[in-house]
Every structure is written in structure tokens, then in C-alpha cells.
Amino acid sequence: MRAFLVFATLIFVALGSWQVQRLIWKLDLIARVDARVHATPVAPPAAGQSPDDIEYLHVAISGSFDHTKEALVQAVTKLGPGYWVVTPLKLEDGRTILINRGFVPPDRRDPSTRVESQTVGEAAVTGLVRLSEPGGGFLRENDPGNERWYSRDVAAISASRGLQGVMPYFIDADATSNPGGYPVGGLTVIQFPNSHLSYALTWFALAIMSLGAAIFFGRLQRAAG
């Protein structure tokens, strides 16, 4: 029993140390993302860059929207349930970037209810780079054939619209108001679960308990001997 408890102590210490390393990594990630979000907007990243280097990058671009190829992705926001309006933006260099222009409630799902926002000609967009969300939502797969989108899957949306040269990420537009008030941008939620400290303390507490139990059983064995 004593040998088992000593072994368990070593395992718990190792697990606690690993959680401390994860905590340091998570805090660094949060700091890097916060710096990106509040940095001066830059040009959109090229294809092939590491996702870790571009997610939540603050960018500014201009191009022309193709509103005929927008996709509505189901969303739940602080404004309630509704849809993200995801629209391709064609850049002068030939590239296309999907723009999440923002949120609309169910009664604004039909583009005819927000004609003012269907801008024609060159449009400027400032926002945050987001990574593609392949597959769908929780227990629900995207159904392109029936226009049921539960996640902002760049590849699937692009394929369903016959788009070429699309960048492998999308951009969440900022809170700059659109004509007519919809879509509502600037609703990006940046949240990183960070329970590593509590996990580390739990493992170290278990290590202390196991070590205490090992010492206790060791004394019992010596007393019995």
C-alpha cells in the first residue's frame, strides 16, 4: 500500500505540474489574442499562415460584396436567436473573403427586409479574423442543399455558392453601423476557458494527501514491526 501511495503521489505531482504548464500557455495565449484584438488593423493574412498566428487578428480590407450569394447561419447572441449574415467580399487582387457582416433577428432573415444594407460598389470592412467552423453545430450538421447552416464553414459555404479563390478563414465585422441598422456587427465573443489553476491545485492536494497517507502507513508498518 505504501509503495502504491508513493507512486500515486508522483503521478499527482506530474499532473499538477502539467496543469501549471498549461496555465502558463493559456495566459500567454490570452495576452497575445488581446494584443491582436486591440492592435491597429492590418491587411488580411495570406493563405497558409498558421491558425495560431492569425486568429482574432484585427484587419481592414475593402472590396465589393456579392449579396446574391450570402448565407444565413443560425446564431444565438446577446441580442437573442437569429442568424449571422455571411457574405463574400471580392478583393481587387481576385481573392474572396467571407465576411460575417453581423446578426439579424428572424424577422430580418429575408434580404428584402434590409435592402438598405445591400451596399453596391466598394465597401470597407474592419474586423477580426476567425477560423472556419467545419461540420456544423452541436448535434446538427450543415445541410447546404436545404440552406441550413449551423456553423460558419468556409469551405462548405464557398462550394455551395460556386466561389473560387476563397481564403480559408472568415472575418467578423466590427460594430460599424450598417445602413438600416442590420446586420449588427461587433458581436464576436472572445472567451478562453481557463480552469488550469484549479486543476493544478486539485492534483497537488491529492499529492499531499497521498504522501500523508504513505507516511501514515509507513509508521504503522514500523510500529507493527
Would you give an account of this structure?
Helix content is 34%, strand content 25%. The chain has helices spanning 2-37, 51-54, 154-160, 196-224; strands spanning 58-65, 71-77, 80-90, 96-104, 122-131, 136-137, 140-141, 166-173. The strands form 2 sheets. It has a 5-stranded mixed β-barrel. Helix 1 packs antiparallel against helix 4 (196-224). The longest helix has 36 residues, at 2-37. The chain starts with a helix and ends with a helix. The mean pLDDT is 89.
- For the residues shown, what is the average pLDDT? 89
- Uncertain residue segments: none
Let me know the number of strands.
Answer: 8
Give the % helix: 25-40%
Rg calc? 25 Å
Number of helices: 4
Lateral arrangement of strands in the main beta sheet: 1-3-4-8-5
Structural class: alpha+beta
Q: Which tags fit this structure?
A:
225 residues; alpha+beta; 5-stranded mixed β-barrel; two-stranded antiparallel sheet; 8 strands
Topology overview:
Blueprint: H1 2-37, H2 51-54, E1 58-65, E2 71-77, E3 80-90, E4 96-104, E5 122-131, E6 136-137, E7 140-141, H3 154-160, E8 166-173, H4 196-224
Parallel strand pairs: 4-8
Antiparallel strand pairs: 1-3, 1-5, 2-3, 3-4, 5-8, 6-7
Helix pairs in contact: 1-4
Q: What is the gist of this entry?
A:
The chain is an alpha+beta fold and 225 residues long. It has helices spanning 2-37, 51-54, 154-160, 196-224; strands at 58-65, 71-77, 80-90, 96-104, 122-131, 136-137, 140-141, 166-173. The strands form 2 sheets. Strands 1-3-4-8-5 form a 5-stranded mixed barrel.
